[in-house]
Amino acid sequence: MRCASYCTGTAYDIKRIFETWQASAVTSHLYSEVVFISLEKERTMCFFAYGSVVFWNHTTEEEKAVLAKIANFITSPLSNIQEDVFTYNYGSETLIEEEEDHIILQSNDPLLKISLSYGLSQSVKLSNFEYEIDQTIQRTRHLPAELAEKGKISLSRKKISQHLGKLFSQKNSINLDSYALDTPEFFWKRPRYEPFYQQAVDFLDIEVRLNILNGKLNLVHELYQILSDELKHAHSSFLEWIIIILILFEVIISLR
Q1: Which residues, including other chains, have CB under 8 Å from residue 217's CB and lie 6 or more apart?
Q2: What is the reported pLDDT for 225?
Q3: Cα–Cα distance for residue pair 174/95, rounded to 1 Å
Q4: Which residue, 84, 86, 65, is CA-closest to 128?
């Protein structure tokens, strides 16, 4: 069976999503960060407030239909949707076969699926952050070579300030929006399900990827900081030359 996770926006209005499916669902639950919807034929969906959704036992066409249906409940839809696909079946214990990208569930317990879905949803959320930072790196790749070759860069102080502001915004989204990547509050009252969530986190290397992502952010920030300091130095030198020229004019006028 198919298990697919998507990140399609910065946030979902999970209350409205819950109300949309509540009448037709076999089982539905609204938690603080996630909506669980169970339909016929063991098709289930987990919608997360931070803009990710996990489908269990849906076809690709059914998933696309659901994503189209929730389009009005998405805050800041992504132009580049992140997707991850696994297979799954049932067995004697819950585990993840890493080489096969295959999940084995010990039961059809909704809380078990939600627990694993948290890790899967965080992974595609992190994939979106990784994509955005890679785009930032591509946009700045030419700047060090330009500075080394010409001794100056084509960006203005305003542009660099804008880039720095966007970089801080990305870093805040990754590190301050802790509900998206930290251990969810969902497990505070359900600690026996947390090991299943941790299984998914370990399998998807979320902590390692987060550290690498922060390292990339720091490198880009350092580059912009150097460029900003360089422009400040150039501006200061320009002001110094203006002062020197004004003093020179004053001396010439006083000698007449």
Answers
A1: 133, 167, 170, 171, 174
A2: 74
A3: 28
A4: 84
Q: Hey, what are 147's tokens?
A: 């500075």
Ranges of each domain in the chain: 2-108, 129-255
Select from 18, 4, 17 the least CA-distant residue to 82. Answer: 4
Helix H, strand E, coil C: the string for the chain is CEEEEEEEEEEECHHHHHHHHHCCCCEEEECCCEEEEECHHHCEEEEECCCEEEEECCCHHHHHHHHHHCHHHEEEEEEEEEEEEEEEEECCCCEEECCCCEEEECCCCHHHHHHHHHHHHHHHHHHHHHHHHHHHHHHHCCHHHHHHHHCCCCCCHHHHHHHHHHHHHHHHHHHCCHHHCCCCHHHCCCHHHHHHHHHHHHHCCHHHHHHHHHHHHHHHHHHHHHHHHHHHHHHHHHHHHHHHHHHHHHHHHHHC
Domain 2-108 has CATH 3.30.310.10: yes
151-199 pLDDT tens trace: 666 667 677 667 667 766 666 666 655 456 778 889 999 999 999 999 9
Mean pLDDT of 222-238: 67
Single-letter amino acid, residue 37: I
Decide: 125 and 180 in contact? Cβ < 8 Å. yes
Q: Which long-range contacts (CB under 8 A, 24 or more apart) does 59-64 make?
A: 59/2, 60/2, 60/4, 63/4, 63/6
Q: Smallest Cα–Cα separation from 125: which of 88, 179, 72, 167?
A: 179
